[in-house]
Structures are given as C-alpha cells and as structure tokens.
Amino acid sequence: MTDDDYARLRxxxxxxxxxxxxxxxxPYAKVKLxxxxxxxxxxxxxxxxxxVWLVHQTRKTGKHTVAVPSSALGRxxxxxxxxxxxxxxLEADGLITVKRTTCKNPIVTVSKIADxxxxx
Length: 120
Known about the structure:
Blueprint: H1 3-17, H2 33-42, H3 47-61, E1 65-67, H4 70-74, H5 80-92, E2 96-99, E3 107-110, H6 112-118
Antiparallel strand pairs: 1-3, 2-3
Helix pairs in contact: 2-3, 3-5
C-alpha cells in the first residue's frame, strides 16, 4: 500500500466517522392553555392569551388562517373588547392579518414571519 492509497483510505474513514451536524431549532414552550390564561390574568395581561390561542389553533389545524370566536377565548378569561384590542395590536405589528365582517367572527391569518418566530 502506497502513501497515497493510505491517505485516501484514512480520509474516507475520517469523513465516514464524522458526526452529523444537528439542525439548529428554535426553542419553544409547550404550555397548557388554562395555565397560560391564569398566568396572564395574574400578570394583568389577558391580550397575550390571544396570541397563544392563535398559535395553538394554527398548529392544531395545520392552517395559517383561523376563525376567532369570542366564546373560544372567553373560556380563558378574554373578553370581546380585549380580543378586539389584541387583534388590532397584533395586526399593527404585522404578525397577523384580520378579515372583519359584520356580525361574524374575524378571520385571522398568522403571517409566515410570525410563525417562524414561534418555531415549528
């Protein structure tokens, strides 16, 4: 065996034994909605529950667009006024787009940029 053969063989062994690099994934939290609602209420920040609920729904349905009924958020202590205010603020920040129609639940689309900040 010549030096060139040995060098090629050794390089092949080194490349084969190199550990695979792990993908860097964004950390995320798994939280029960009821616990989150209690925490946000304790901190006097019920609007934050709207964002957590939206992320939960988009992950649950696998779609970026969801209807936002007041009754669903009402279970977690979020009033209609708080929901409306939170949706306006999230929309102003570019995290969501809202389609509003009279006498209907707003249809919210979570932007893909916001989804990436949440992590998949």
